[in-house]
Please model this.
Amino acid sequence: MTLSSSLILGVHIVMAMLLAGGALAVLFSGGTTSPALPRQTAVIGIILLLTTGINNFISRLGTGVPKGYHMWFGIKFLLALHVVTMIYLVSGGKLSDEKRIRLLKGAGASVIAVVLISVYLNFLATRG
Ligand code: HEM
Model:
């Protein structure tokens, strides 16, 4: 990996933390908190997460990835779309607390799967 792709991966991870943090907080607090990002912050975060993710993907393809990488990437992408859609829907704080907690709990579960798949993608791409 070049320094610039490592930096882009860093931006990707910070955006994932920003967007996923609230969902994980709801999941692990059992719904006693119900955070919502401002709509504009959520949209900017989602755009940066998607563009840095696509950049990560393209730079990985350049290094020649093993069989299975594309399949796991596809699964990660679909789960990540679930996460960002939920974060978008709850942003702006217009939904009721009850609905926001329900949507964020589902997103929190997907976040855990997305991070585990990301780590597996890293393993597939970097194992000798
Ligand atoms: C909720 C959404 C997301 C989360 C929580 C997330 C999280 C992460 C994390 C933690 C890593 C670092 C893995 C590691 O190096 O061990 C990573 C890498 C990566 N992400 Fe994401 N990501 C998300 C969305 C996306 C999206 C939407 C895309 C594509 C458009 C994407 C594409 C990638 C790629 C290609 C890598 C590099 C994997 C590798 O090392 O080969 N991610 N992501």
About this structure: Residues 12-13, 16, 20, 49-50, 53-54, 56-57, 60, 77, 80, 83, 111, 114-115, 118-119, 121-122, 125 surround protoporphyrin IX containing FE (CB under 6 Å). The chain has a mean pLDDT of 95. The radius of gyration is 15 Å.
